[in-house]
């Protein structure tokens, strides 16, 4: 990520930067749940998303520290907006996560620091690209600023249907994903505690 080389100004850490970090904590947690309910190509995509959000999370931690702030730590668990039982649910959650993280970066893109604006723009673009990869359809013309995730309930990416039948068993092996999902059904909050998807968990944090 070339934008990390840019030296940020020494301005105080802003709320937008803190909120972006909080969104990344939630995304890392959510992708642990997503990885526990997918297999094959979907699991590969979940692992890539997990790694990308973890890298952005660490980058934001570094920026906040450089600016004299104290990076917030993730919560022990996060409430999911719905219960994740099968691959189609995991796809729906992934799209929602990417949309919400995009919203956080769009706010950060209004910062006066050019380095932060560049970081936010690239991160938001990455989120929009991942969301489209999970659910290849045209939604809001300005991702993160549209109808509050109204497009999430549409049909998932094609491979979700072909893998759904064989993925139920594999999902139970995810790192704590069943417990996290069952405790959070019906909640309104966004999904942070790190739980690496499936077999990729042994890679460490």
Low-confidence runs (pLDDT<50, min 5 residues)?
1-13, 148-205
Global Rg: 16 Å
CATH class, named: Mainly Alpha
Distance between the termini: 19 Å
Strand content of the residues, in percent?
Answer: under 5%
Order of helices and strands: HHHHHH
Mean pLDDT: 74
Per the CATH scheme, the topology name is: Ferritin
Approximate shape: globular
Number of domains: 1
Q: Label the CATH architecture.
A: Up-down Bundle
Largest sheet: none
Number of helices: 6
Proportion of residues in helical segments: 55-70%
CATH superfamily: Ferritin, core subunit, four-helix bundle
Can you describe this structure?
The structure is a single chain. The protein is mainly alpha-helical and 205 residues long. It has one domain: Ferritin, core subunit, four-helix bundle (Ferritin), CATH 1.20.1260.10. The protein is built from six helices and no strands. α1 runs antiparallel to α2, α1 (15-36) runs antiparallel to α3 and α1 packs across α6 (177-183). Mean pLDDT is 74; it is low at 1-13 and 148-205.
Features:
55% helix; 205 residues; globular; mainly alpha; disordered N terminus; single chain; disordered C terminus; Ferritin
Set down the secondary structure blueprint.
Elements: H1 15-36, H2 40-66, H3 87-108, H4 114-134, H5 158-171, H6 177-183
Helix pairs in contact: 1-2, 1-3, 1-6, 2-4, 3-4
In short:
Helix content is 55%, strand content 0%. It has 205 residues and is an all-alpha fold. The chain is globular, with a radius of gyration of 16 Å.
């Amino acid at each position: 990520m070339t934008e990390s080389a840019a030296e940020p100004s020494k301005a105080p850490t802003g709320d937008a930067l803190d909120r972006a970090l909080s969104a990344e904590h939630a995304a890392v947690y959510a992708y642990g749940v997503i990885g526990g309910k997918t297999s094959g190509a979907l699991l590969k995509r979940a692992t890539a998303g997990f790694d990308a959000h973890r890298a952005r999370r660490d980058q934001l931690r570094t920026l906040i520290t450089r600016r004299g702030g104290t990076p917030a730590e993730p919560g022990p668990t996060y409430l999911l907006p719905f219960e994740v039982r099968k691959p189609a649910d995991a796809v729906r959650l992934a799209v929602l996560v990417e949309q919400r993280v995009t919203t956080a970066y769009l706010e950060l893109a209004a910062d006066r620091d050019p380095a932060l604006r560049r970081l936010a723009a690239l991160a938001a673009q990455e989120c929009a690209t991942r969301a489209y990869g999970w659910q290849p359809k045209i939604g809001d013309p300005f991702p993160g600023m549209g109808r509050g995730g109204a497009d999430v309930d549409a049909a998932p990416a094609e491979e979700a249907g072909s893998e759904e039948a064989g993925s139920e068993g594999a999902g139970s092996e995810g790192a704590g994903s069943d417990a996290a999902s069952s405790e959070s059904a019906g909640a309104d909050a966004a999904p942070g505690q790190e739980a690496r998807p499936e077999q990729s968990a042994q890679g460490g944090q």
